[in-house]
Amino acid sequence: MKQRLLRQIPPIHELQKDEAYITLLKSGDLSDDLLTEWLQEAVAEVRSQILNEIWTEEASIKESIFTAVSARLSKHFDYTLKKVINGTGTVLHTNLGRAILSEQAIKQVIVAATSYSNLEYGLEEGARGSRHALIEDIVKEVTGAEAAMVVNNNAAAVYFVLTAFAKGREVIVSRGELVEIGGSFRVSSIMEESGAHLKEIGTTNKTHYKDYEAAISCETAMLMKVHTSNFKTIGFTSAVESKDLTKLAKEKEVILYEDLGSGALYDLSQHGIGDEPHVSEVLAQGVDLVTFSGDKLLGGPQAGIIAGSKKLIDRLKKHQLARVLRVDKMTLAALEATLKSYIDSNTALKEIPTLKMIVKSKEEIKQESEQFTSMLSKEWNSELIEDFSMVGGGTMPDVQLETWLLLLSHPNKKTQEMIEALRLGETAVVTRVKDDKIAIDFRTISSNDYDELLTRLELVKEV
Predict the structure, then answer these.
(1) Which residues, renumbered to this chain, carry the PTM N6-(pyridoxal phosphate)lysine (predicted)?
(2) 64 φ/ψ angles, rounded to the nearest 5 degrees
(3) Cβ distance 46 to 61 under 8 Å?
(4) Shortest CA distance to 172 belongs to which of 224, 122, 124, 227?
(5) CA–CA gap between residue 93 and residue 382 (Å, rounded)
(6) In terms of residue numbers, what domain contains 45?
(7) Could you give the residue ranges of the DSSP H alpha helices within 52-176?
(8) Residues 388-397 pLDDT 10s
(9) Which of 13, 122, 201, 333 could form a disulfide with 129 if both were Cys (CB 3.0 to 4.6 A apart)?
(10) DSSP character for 434?
(11) Contact between residue 441 and residue 405 where contact means Cβ atoms under 8 Å apart
């Protein structure tokens, strides 16, 4: 049996003359050498399956070989990082890339990517410049900081600050602020890696001013505050605000540093959404340094922004880690454009997709859901129910944004099968499941995606 099947495998030179091979060669605009290599791999796989008695193909051996080569060709031209339509309603969905860039940011990225730029060249001086200078003035303008610099993410910013100013010395932190965020990033672990010595004070739920005062010694380099953006402790609690620690830090000649994490530059509380601390307000309280993310509430690219004292920032710029942790030209381009939107708060709300999605009203979402429902074929069973969206990204975990969910089901298809088919399509669609139905939250879906989403839904019900 094995020998009979093995004899049916055509030699490579015959397969190369086959019309199917010629068609694949033309369709993919590939070299003959590369396609031949894939052909040899497909033949080797078929031979292995026959020898191991796992050959179960009903089609001919030749057809199976070309099917495998065709699949390899499709995979070759497919990209790993793909567009996803986010139907979950979670605005800063960490697994789906967090913030969507503004149109202004995208335009600047294209400029930076498709042409030479003054990344490290002073146009006025006609000499070598610093990439730190490109972004510093705009960060200063929107935060009120004396100076600023940017690294590749906020975890890097925390590590950088601790390494540069507290290596081998003590950093005092409240036990209630020793947070862990996504990907097992722990403040205590980062501190250990930086070479700083953690000195815990207070308890999980209560830390007092006297705890900081009593803990400071000649080995203390820094008082560190960590904004607990990804959880809330309620009940019998007490914490010391940064504004109350500024005098103590100055008296003891230690640095007061606060990691804000999410980095709000827009006051969402005016829309009744959360109470996230504003970067400029924290700096105005007298904090020496703050760090925050670029791709959370800021709504920009992944980055870690360090702002505060010019004396301290200047030391960071000269540190060897500044080169290790620096960002590229496209990140700087996107970040500058994003920050420029914040010069005026009304402009930020109009231009930053993250802000627009967070403040989108329940009524707007219902209207959009109804509009989309009217486009669906009548085979679908649909209904709208009230529910809640999340901000996401470890930001404002206690905030629930009122929304409407579109629930979809089909009489001839299982919900889980359709969910999987939507996720695995050419344009992936990620949704929620509620009451064994596809649940779509239009808070995070652009009207530009309606046609594509409609096409995907119509396809999955036919599979």
Answers:
(1) 296
(2) -65, -40
(3) yes
(4) 224
(5) 25
(6) 2-76
(7) 61-76, 103-114, 132-143, 154-166
(8) 999 998 888 8
(9) 122
(10) E
(11) yes
Asked whether the beta carbons of 294 and 263 are under 8 A apart, the reply is yes
Q: 448 vs 95, 97, 151, 365, CA distance in Å?
A: 22, 19, 33, 15
Position 119 in a domain: no
CATH number at residue 374: 3.90.1150.180
- Dist CA 336 CA 360 (whole Å): 25
Beta pairing partners, 147: 308
User: What Cα–Cα distance (Å) separates residue 54 from each residue in 43, 45, 49, 51, 59?
Assistant: 15, 11, 5, 8, 14
Q: What is the DSSP letter of 278?
A: B
- Work out the widest C-alpha separation in the chain, in whole angstroms: 90
Q: Are 150 and 278 in a shared domain? A: yes
Q: What is the CATH number of the domain that holds 288?
A: 3.40.640.10
Residues recorded for the chain: 463
Phi, psi of 126 (to 5 degrees): 70, 30
- For the chain, the domain total comes to 3
CA distance 290 to 129: 25
Comparing CA positions, the residue from 349, 263, 328, 350 lying closest to residue 109 is 328
What's the average pLDDT block by block, 10 residues per block, for the chain (463 residues)? Answer: 83 91 84 92 91 76 90 86 96 95 98 96 91 94 97 94 96 83 67 88 85 94 82 62 91 95 91 92 95 96 97 96 96 97 96 97 97 93 96 87 97 93 92 96 96 93 72
Asked if 284 and 138 count as a contact pair (C-beta separation under 8 A), the reply is: no
Where is 308: in which H helix or E strand? strand 304-308
**316 φ, ψ to 5°?**
-65, -40
Give the span between the Cα atoms of 267 and 382, in whole angstroms: 36
Q: Is 296 helix (H, G, I), strand (E, B) or coil?
A: coil
CA–CA distance, 87 with 85 (Å, rounded to integer): 6
- Verify that 177 and 89 share a domain, yes or no: no
Task: Count the neighbouring beta carbons within 10 Å of the beta carbon of residue 427.
Answer: 14
Q: Which residues contact residue 24 at a Cβ distance below 8 angstroms, ignoring those fewer than 6 apart? A: 30, 35, 66, 69, 70, 73
Contact between 161 and 224 under an 8 Å Cβ cutoff? The reply is: no
